[in-house]
Write a structure and sequence with these properties.
With 263 residues, the protein is of the alpha/beta class. The protein has a domain at 8-190: 2-enoyl-CoA Hydratase, Chain A, domain 1. It has twelve helices and ten strands. It has helices at 32-47, 70-74, 78-96, 113-120, 147-155, 157-166, 172-177, 191-198, 200-203, 207-220, 225-240, 243-253; strands at 8-13, 16-21, 53-58, 63-65, 102-106, 109-111, 123-127, 131-133, 170-171, 183-185. The strands form two sheets. A six-stranded mixed β-sheet has the order 1-2-3-5-7-10, sandwiched between helices. Helix 1 runs parallel beside helix 3 (78-96) and helix 4 packs across helix 5.
């Protein structure tokens, strides 16, 4: 296991930051230190213009993240657990609100808080052998890191209830069929490498437009359609004044690929 003081390994590949939960012996479960590390990294990434997208993954091939660290939780009082659940909101919030696209590369099991972490991400790529589920009700609790709110938005109410009430675990192919993941990586290919290649249009794309699109899409679920369309207009205006938008028009006329500078 990595140094528990900082349990997430970081690497930058071009414009993409790859964050790997490095707690393989505990199936990359979310300890207090792991949540704090996510908060720190996401806050720093927000200020770092060299990062245009983030890939979140787990060490090894067995687990993306097995949810709450149940061993750490064993020693906790009721109040400690309450504080810990609050910590999910406080420390995963910056990743949720991140203006750069965040992609989960699901390299294995994503259960409980592990799947909730993937649901916070904007896009999900899963290894063929990955399993996904929210088993909390089978453990006498409910998903507490946004799962009850985000899952129905992604797969619909009936399927969310099926997963949450039955504790149903989906294979990667089933998850693809339900729209829970965007893509399943072919066996024999590393899921992070596959995600890197797949998001090439993001890595070399126009960051202002991407941030504006994310903002508008996220707001679609927080308001009526009329209000949402107004909000889309506000987000669109941010791209209208950008150099990147003009560069794309010039590049089109010159029959070349645009070079986006995020200005
Ligand atoms: N928290 C802390 N440790 C965990 C963990 C968790 N959430 N999940 C697994 N581990 C530990 C196991 O205790 C075991 O440790 P040990 O070697 O000291 O006994 C080690 O990781 C390997 O787990 P194991 O269950 O033996 O591996 P497996 O390959 O048979 O199964 C999983 C992997 C992920 C399917 C299985 O560990 C699992 O279902 N974990 C619980 C997931 C869960 O219910 N999360 C929701 C919490 S709300």
């Amino acid at each position: 296991m990595s140094d528990e003081a900082f349990p997430i390994k970081t690497e930058q590949r071009g414009t993409v930051a790859v964050w790997t939960i490095d707690r393989e012996a505990r199936m990359n479960a979310l300890s207090r230190a792991t949540l704090l590390a996510f908060g720190k990294l996401a806050r720093e990434a927000a200020e770092n213009a060299s990062i245009r997208a983030i890939i979140v993954t787990g060490a090894g091939e067995k687990a993306f993240c097995a949810g709450a660290d149940l061993k750490e939780r064993q020693g906790m009082s009721e109040n400690d657990v309450r504080v810990q659940v609050e910590l999910y909101r406080a420390e995963l919030g910056p990743l949720d609100r991140c203006t750069k696209p965040v992609v989960a590369a699901i390299n294995g099991a994503a259960f409980g808080g592990g799947l909730e972490l993937a649901l916070i991400c904007d896009l999900r790529v899963a290894a063929k052998h990955a399993m996904l589920g929210l088993p909390e009700t089978t453990l006498g609790i409910i998903p507490g890191a946004g799962g009850t709110q985000r899952l129905p938005r992604i797969v619909g109410e009936a399927r969310a209830k099926e997963m949450i009430l039955l504790g149903r675990r989906l294979t990667a192919d089933e998850a693809l069929g339900w729209g829970l993941v965007n893509r399943v990586t072919a066996p024999g290919t590393n899921v992070v490498d596959d995600a890197m290649a797949w998001i090439e249009p993001i890595a070399n794309g126009a960051p202002i437009a991407q941030a504006a699109a994310l903002e508008a899409i996220d707001r679609a679920f927080a308001s009526s359609l009329d209000v949402g369309l107004e909000l889309e207009k506000v987000s669109y205006d941010k791209t209208l004044v950008s150099e990147d938008r003009r560069e794309a028009l010039v590049a089109f006329a010159e029959k070349r690929k645009p070079v986006f500078k995020g200005r």
